[in-house]
Design brief:
The complex is a heterodimer of chains A (162) and B (267).
Chain A lengths: L8 H16 L4 H5 L4 H12 L6 H15 L5 H22 L2 H26 L5 H28 L4
Helix pairs in contact in A: 1-3, 3-5, 3-7, 4-5, 5-6, 6-7
Chain B lengths: L1 H6 L3 H31 L3 H39 L11 E8 L9 E4 L12 E3 L4 E8 L4 E5 L6 E6 L5 E7 L4 E8 L9 E4 L11 E9 L6 E8 L8 E6 L13 H4 L2
Antiparallel strand pairs in B: 1-2, 1-12, 2-5, 3-4, 3-12, 4-5, 6-7, 6-9, 7-8, 8-11, 9-10, 10-11
The chains are: A mainly alpha (162), B alpha+beta (267).
């Protein structure tokens, strides 16, 4: 089992790096305001599909990298992502049997929670943005979820990541 | 998080993590670099010639202006000698370094940018950054290969300024939503007019004195409010530059304000 349990680490790594790159990629202002939470989607997918590989620890590291690349207070995205990963790992068996649209709703709730934590910490540290600018990315995250889900599942099956 | 926010205790960890993120930043920056490079290398001969010509004309004009500046400087020194006052604009030429802005997006809720110079080029936290046309911002975090800077229009940025016309001092605070600055705590009858040029006063010990910051575009006076609302448009085209100047101020001009340069700070 231990031999089978470690396959496709480069794929996981690649998708995580890709999500981080999409997050810091320059976009026009209108698109910047609706940029979905790519890192959150990657973390949710992998911790749902392979909870024994990607869980709170990886999410925390991704969050720290997100903190540094956003130049935010160190730990705010890490905390938010780790919490989301915790919920996903807890609910992964239920999430897996949901149809995609239902998963999208759950991802919407997750990304609202994620935004709420970030907004909360930003509020404490005195750089709170307006609430609407933080809600619109949650919608685009949910809308993009089916596509991201199909893409990552395809990747996982082709390279039989387990 | 508290340690990072209040005490900056995590700065070393942050700059270590920046090393991990830096390759990503450069990778993301690559397409725009390639576009720049290709638009530079695939231009026609005539375009280059024309550009060369305009640059030469501009250079001559600047040279002519510089001649005038030399005589004005001498005259200023003479007048100051007559008045027996200290010349505080002597040797205000600072050490500068050109840095390039990496085209990566940061937190969409703040006005920040990343430059391709870091602690390996002696960049320090709080270092002023100038554009060709005026003050742009200052460095807030330094990594080994890149640094993050805050624009003067960031909500948490304020810059001490002076009106060039009459020397009225003020503080300009960033208004990120409007991409503007606002002069705070100015009474309704302050001697500030629309189109006044604001220059850095050098009082905050961050920016060297005498660089342009912005122009007043709008003054709203409401008698029921204690202060006038004065909107300033930055002269530096904040979102159009690719290259910026990192400045190491000498702070010789305002020694009496007890400013310390980066070299004097660390023994």
């Amino acid at each position: 089992m231990s031999i089978v349990a470690r396959r496709g680490t480069p794929i996981i790594f690649f998708t995580m790096v890709l999500s981080l790159m999409l997050t810091i990629m320059p976009l026009p202002t209108w698109a910047e305001e609706i940029r979905p939470h790519f890192v959150l989607m990657a973390v949710v997918y992998w911790s749902m599909a392979l909870p024994h590989r990607v869980n709170i620890g990886i999410a925390w590291v991704m969050g720290l990298l997100l903190d540094v690349s956003y130049d935010a207070v160190l730990g705010q995205y890490a905390l938010a992502l780790a919490l989301i990963a915790f919920f996903t790992v807890n609910l992964h068996q239920r999430l897996r049997v949901f149809p995609v649209w239902q998963q999208a709703i759950v991802v919407f709730v997750f990304s609202m929670l994620y935004s709420l934590i970030v907004l909360w910490i930003k509020g404490i540290t005195g750089t709170a943005p307006s609430v609407w600018t933080i809600i619109t990315p949650c919608f685009t995250t949910a809308v993009l979820w089916p596509g991201v889900f199909m893409f990552l599942r395809k990747l996982r099956r082709i390279y039989s990541v387990s | 998080m508290v340690l990072d926010h209040r005490l900056h205790a995590m700065d070393t960890i942050r700059s270590a993590l920046t090393v991990v993120v830096d390759p990503l930043r450069y990778l993301v920056n690559l397409p725009s670099d390639i576009i720049d490079w290709s638009s530079e290398s695939f231009v026609s001969h005539s375009t280059l010639e024309e550009e060369n010509k305009t640059l030469r004309t501009k250079n001559e004009l600047l040279q002519a202006k510089l001649q005038k500046y030399a005589s004005l400087k001498a005259e200023n020194a003479n007048l100051r000698a007559l008045l027996k006052s200290v010349d505080n604009h002597e040797e205000t030429l600072e050490q500068v370094l050109i840095a390039e802005i990496l085209s990566v997006d940061l937190d969409p809720y703040r006005r920040q940018f990343v430059i391709n110079k870091g602690s390996s080029n002696n960049v320090y936290v709080g270092q002023p950054i100038m554009g060709a046309l005026g003050a742009m911002g200052k460095v807030i975090h330094v990594g080994p290969l890149s640094s993050t800077a805050m624009m003067i229009t960031d909500a948490s940025h304020s810059i001490p300024v002076q009106i060039n016309r009459n020397g009225v001092r003020a503080i300009a605070v960033g208004q990120p939503k409007l991409q503007r600055l606002e002069l705070i705590h100015q009474p309704n009858n302050a001697d500030i007019l629309v189109d006044d040029l604001l220059v850095t006063s050098g009082l905050g010990c961050v920016f060297p004195p005498g660089y342009p910051v912005g122009r007043v575009t709008e003054i709203i006076t409401n008698p029921s409010l204690p202060f006038a609302q004065i909107i300033v448009e930055p002269t530096a085209e904040l979102d159009r530059h690719r290259e910026v100047l990192l400045v190491w101020p000498s702070h010789r001009a305002n020694k009496e304000a007890q400013c310390k340069g980066p070299a004097e700070e660390k023994p």
